[in-house]
Write a structure and sequence with these properties.
Length: about 90
């Protein structure tokens, strides 16, 4: 499904990983979010505040790139885990 809005809880890192076409938007605004260790924590609002960008304008540019991305229908890498996958527990041996 192509996004209609930007989920405010999504980080810029997830957005760039899920929709690679958004990377060019970041580059056009001279944002250093690509590869930034803070990108896994920063939402679009956080990044706009840090880079003094208009959030509404920037969000529309991201959405345009997201909708044009051929991977727009891909599942999120950060979505729910499949049942049983990654659910192993480590038990201490006495």
């Amino acid at each position: 499904m192509k996004p209609a809005t930007i989920d405010p809880s999504m980080t810029v890192d997830e957005i760039m990983r899920r929709w690679p076409a958004t990377i060019r938007v970041m580059i056009c605004h001279k944002m250093l979010c690509i590869g930034c260790p803070i990108g896994i924590f920063h939402t679009v609002s956080d990044a706009c505040e840090a880079h003094a960008l208009d959030k509404d304008v920037f969000s529309m540019e991201l959405l345009k790139a997201m909708r044009s991305d051929p991977l727009a229908d891909a599942a999120s890498a950060f979505g729910e885990r499949e049942s049983g996958v990654g659910d192993r527990r480590i038990t201490a041996i006495a």
